[in-house]
Design a protein that fits this description.
- A hairpin with a 2-residue loop joins strand 5 and strand 6.
- The chain is elongated, with a radius of gyration of 34 Å.
- A three-stranded antiparallel sheet has the order 3-2-7, with helices on one face.
- The protein contains 16 helices and ten strands.
- It starts with 10 loop residues before the first helix and ends in an 11-residue tail after the last helix.
- The protein is mainly α.
- The mean pLDDT is about 80.
Length: about 425
C-alpha cells in the first residue's frame, strides 16, 4: 500500500511571508508642494513661521566683525556702514533668507546705472550700484545653452536677459553637477507634512479634551417625541438641565429618566504629543527648546542641543550670508574709491551667549595651553594672539599688536638682528 505524504500548513511561516507586504506597497512620491501652499503654511502654521523667523533672527542678530586694514579710518568705516544702510542691506538679507528658507531658491539682482541692453554682458568695472532686487523661485530661470555640456551664463528675469555675474543665487539642498537637473527644495517644504501631522494631532487632542466627559440622558419616550416633531422641546430640556447643573451642581429629572456620564481615558496623549514634537524638531533640524520653547529635562542639561544649534547657525551664516556680503561689499568699496583694495575679511559674531565666568575660565584654559605651546616653540606669540582674537576671547587685539608680536618673536629668535622694536 502506497503511503501519501501529509502536508502541514506552517502558520508561523505563512505569517512571516505575509509580514511587510504593506510596507512594500508604500512608495515615496515627488514633492509637489507649490509656492502657494508654502505661503499658506507660513501664514497658518506657527511651526513653519517660527522656524523661518527664528532662523533669520539668529543668523543676523550678531552681525559681523569686519577686519578693516590700515587704509580705513573712522570716517571710512562710517561711510561704509552708511552705504549699506542706503542700499538697505539688512532688509535685502532678511528677504533673501525668507525666500531661501521657505522656497529653497532665491536670486539677488544688482541693478546698476548701465543701460538694460548692457545687462547681457558681464558686470563692468565702471558700473555703479543703484539698488538690489530679491527674486523668489518663480521669478527667474536659467537660460539653457544650445550647445551640449556648456554651462549656462544668463538668467531670464521678466523680459530681460541678465548675465549671472550681476546676480548671486542661493539654493538649499545639494546642487547637481551632472546631466540630470535637480530642483531645489527647502527644508520647510520637505517638513511640511510633518508640521501638518503635528497640527492635526494638536487639534485632535484639543477636541478630545473638550469632549472627554459626556453626559448621557435616558429620556422615556424619546423616540416617540422625535417622531412627533418635539425635538426642540427635548433640546430646551437638555439646555435647562445643563443650566441648572452650572448653577447648583445638581440635576433634576423625572423618576423614569436615566442619567450617566462617560469619560474618555486620556492616558498616553502627553507621550503622543511629546513624540510628535520630537519628530517635528528632527525634520526641521532644530532643538526642541528652539521650536517649542521646551527646556531640557531628566539627565540632559540641554547644552549639547544648544551647542549643536549654534554650530548649525554658524554653518548657515558661512554658507548663505557670506556670499551675499561678498557680492555687495565690492559695490560699496568701488563707490568709496577703494577698488584696488583686497576684499574685506570678516567673521560672523557667534550667538553663543557665554557668561563672564565661563568666558574667564575658557580664557584661563586657553592662555595656559598657548603658553605651553609658545614655550615649546610650537607656535609664536602672534599666532596665539590671532587665535584669542578670532575666538572672541580678547576682542581689542589689533593687527598692529599682532605685527609687533611677530617682529618681537623674530628679534628674540635672531640675537644678531639690530632692528629696533617700536615702543608704541
Amino acid at each position: 500500500m502506497r503511503r501519501t505524504k501529509k502536508r502541514f500548513n506552517d502558520s508561523l511561516g505563512s505569517l512571516v511571508t505575509k509580514m511587510g507586504q504593506k510596507a512594500k506597497e508604500r512608495q515615496y512620491e515627488l514633492n509637489q508642494t507649490t509656492s502657494q501652499q508654502l505661503d499658506n503654511a507660513y501664514d497658518s502654521s506657527w511651526i513653519i513661521r517660527k522656524y523661518i523667523n527664528k532662523t533669520i533672527g539668529d543668523m543676523t542678530k550678531g552681525g559681523r566683525e569686519i577686519f578693516f586694514d590700515e587704509a580705513f579710518d573712522e570716517a571710512d568705516k562710517k561711510t561704509f556702514n552708511d552705504m549699506h544702510a542706503k542700499f538697505e542691506t539688512a532688509g535685502v538679507i532678511a528677504d533673501t533668507l525668507f525666500n531661501l528658507l521657505l522656497y529653497g531658491d532665491v536670486l539677488i539682482f544688482a541693478v546698476t546705472d548701465a543701460n538694460e541692453e548692457i545687462y547681457t554682458n558681464p558686470l563692468g568695472a565702471n558700473e555703479t550700484l543703484k539698488r538690489l532686487i530679491v527674486l523668489s523661485k518663480n521669478e527667474f530661470k536659467e537660460i539653457e545653452k544650445d550647445a551640449k555640456f556648456e554651462p549656462f551664463t544668463h538668467y531670464q528675469i521678466n523680459t530681460l536677459e541678465v548675465h549671472k555675474s550681476r546676480c548671486v543665487r542661493l539654493q538649499q539642498g545639494i546642487k547637481s553637477y551632472g546631466l540630470k537637473r535637480r530642483d531645489s527644495k527647502s527644508d520647510a517644504s520637505v517638513a511640511l507634512e510633518v508640521a501638518k501631522m503635528f497640527d492635526t494631532i494638536t487639534m485632535s487632542v484639543s477636541d478630545l479634551i473638550e469632549e472627554c466627559k459626556l453626559d448621557i440622558f435616558g429620556i422615556e419616550g424619546y423616540n416617540d417625541q422625535i417622531s412627533a416633531g418635539n425635538d426642540e422641546a427635548i433640546l430646551r430640556r437638555l439646555r435647562l438641565i445643563q443650566l441648572g447643573k452650572s448653577y447648583t451642581n445638581a440635576i433634576a429629572m423625572d423618576m423614569n429618566d436615566k442619567y450617566e456620564t462617560k469619560e474618555t481615558n486620556l492616558t498616553g496623549l502627553a507621550d503622543l504629543w511629546t513624540k510628535a514634537s520630537i519628530v517635528v524638531a528632527g525634520a526641521l533640524n532644530r532643538p526642541l527648546n528652539i521650536i517649542f520653547g521646551e527646556s531640557a529635562s531628566g539627565f540632559s542639561s540641554g547644552e549639547e542641543d544648544n551647542r549643536a544649534y549654534y554650530e548649525t547657525i554658524a554653518e548657515l551664516q558661512n554658507t548663505f550670508l557670506r556670499p551675499i556680503y561678498e557680492f555687495i561689499d565690492p559695490f560699496i568699496l568701488k563707490f568709496m574709491g577703494k577698488v584696488d583694495d583686497q576684499p574685506l575679511e570678516f567673521d560672523f559674531v557667534s550667538i553663543d551667549s557665554v557668561n563672564e565666568v565661563e568666558r574667564a575660565n575658557i580664557l584661563n584654559t586657553k592662555a595656559t595651553a598657548f603658553g605651553t605651546l609658545i614655550d615649546k616653540a610650537v607656535i609664536t606669540e602672534a599666532i596665539a594672539l590671532k587665535e584669542l582674537r578670532d575666538e572672541g576671547l580678547i576682542k581689542n587685539i589689533t593687527d598692529e599688536d599682532i605685527s609687533e608680536a611677530e617682529i618681537l618673536s623674530k628679534t628674540l629668535d635672531d640675537p644678531t638682528d639690530n632692528t629696533p622694536v617700536s615702543d608704541e
